[in-house]
Amino acid sequence: MESELERKGRAAKAASRILANLSAKQKNEALERMAKELLAHKEEIVSANQRDVHNARAKGLKGSLINRLLLDEAGLEEISRGLLDLTGLPDPVGEVVAGWTRPNRLQIQQIRVPIGVVGMIYEARPNVTVDAAGLCLKSGNAVILRGGSEAIESNLALTRALQGALLKAGLPEGAVQLVEATDREVVNQMLRLNKYLDVLIPRGGEGLIRLVVENATVPVIETGTGNCHVFVDRDADFDKGIAITVNAKTQRPGVCNAAETLLVDREIAAEFLPRVTDALIGKGVELRGCPETVGIVPGIKPATEDDWATEYLDLIMAVKVVSGVEEVIDHIAAYGTKHSEVIVTENYSRARKFLQEVDAAAVYVNASTRFTDGGRFGFGAEIGISTQKLHARGPMGLREMTTTKYIILGEGQIV
Amino acid sequence: MESELERKGRAAKAASRILANLSAKQKNEALERMAKELLAHKEEIVSANQRDVHNARAKGLKGSLINRLLLDEAGLEEISRGLLDLTGLPDPVGEVVAGWTRPNRLQIQQIRVPIGVVGMIYEARPNVTVDAAGLCLKSGNAVILRGGSEAIESNLALTRALQGALLKAGLPEGAVQLVEATDREVVNQMLRLNKYLDVLIPRGGEGLIRLVVENATVPVIETGTGNCHVFVDRDADFDKGIAITVNAKTQRPGVCNAAETLLVDREIAAEFLPRVTDALIGKGVELRGCPETVGIVPGIKPATEDDWATEYLDLIMAVKVVSGVEEVIDHIAAYGTKHSEVIVTENYSRARKFLQEVDAAAVYVNASTRFTDGGRFGFGAEIGISTQKLHARGPMGLREMTTTKYIILGEGQIV
Question: Which domain holds residue A129?
Answer without folding.
Answer: 4-222+391-409
